[in-house]
Amino acid sequence: MKYMLPGMALIFIAPAALAQDASSNDGSLSAKQYVIDLGVGAMYEPKYPGADEYQVYPFPLIRFSRFYVPILDTSIDGDAAKSGFSIYPSFDFNGKRNSSDSAELKGTRDVDWALELGLGVSYQYDWMRGFVELRQGINGHTGQVADFGIDMITNPTERLGIVFGPRLSWGSNDYMDTYFGVTAAEAAVNGSVLSPYDAGSGFKSFGMVARANYGLTDNTTLHLQAGWDRLIGDAADSPIAEVGSENQLSIGAGISYKFAFDIFE
């Protein structure tokens, strides 16, 4: 998801995979105190980190491109911002992993779904933006995850915005142990497929993401994304990844509608 807070530049709230988006311009709505895009999307991605099976997950699209701050009696116009720092919420979702998902996972502990909540900080200068995001796991894991990335931003046409760039991801010891570790007891029940493995904290993947936003009308926008991550370090060496996949692909699509309104007179 994305939203705007006082004193911040443009903020877009969506799953981590979609957390930085190209802006759209709509000067006809500039007289309103609040301009917000609301929509829904779906992401086709691995069922859990390291999986070779995929599942579709829904997610909301929320974006404030104009936000009025009554205390300061001024509006923050995210679409007008071409450079500077911004702070934004960041979240991601990991699906549930069951020992029954495949014969190779027999004997491993089930991992419940996990929601990751945190913040991101970005700096944009003209057509380039760098960002860092840090999230805390809830439910399925209680570790921390950090994402680093660089975005190249371009607008080939008035209605089309494209963003693409590299990604690097880090996981804490708790996160890595949850998804990539194998205890001696699990290995004993599993048999000869999985061997005991202690996954420590460190960088867990690198990859690329490409996104496109296309204005179908002045108020309706289509959002598309494709991404690829390659497991590295302890994540890649894990028996879980060996019976799953070191390559993690994702495809997402969504649609949003722009609303404009006033609250304060």
Question: Which features would summarize this protein structure in a list?
Answer:
265 residues; mainly beta; Porin; twelve-stranded antiparallel beta sheet; 9% helix; 51% strand; elongated; disordered N terminus
Element layout with pairings:
Elements: E1 11-13, E2 34-46, E3 54-69, E4 74-77, E5 83-94, E6 114-125, E7 128-139, E8 144-154, E9 160-171, H1 173-180, H2 184-190, E10 202-215, E11 220-231, H3 233-237, H4 239-243, E12 247-261
Antiparallel strand pairs: 1-3, 2-3, 2-12, 3-4, 5-6, 6-7, 7-8, 8-9, 9-10, 10-11, 11-12
Low-confidence stretches: 1-14, 19-27
Mean pLDDT: 84
Q: Helicity, in percent?
A: under 10%
CATH topology label: Porin
Number of strands: 12
Number of domains: 1
Compute the CA-based radius of gyration: 20 Å
Largest sheet: 12 strands, antiparallel
Shape: elongated
Distance between the termini: 28 Å
Give the helices and strands as they follow along the chain: EEEEEEEEEHHEEHHE
Number of contiguous helices: 4
Structural class: mainly beta
Give the amount of beta strand, in percent.
over 45%
CATH architecture name: Beta Barrel
CATH domain class name: Mainly Beta
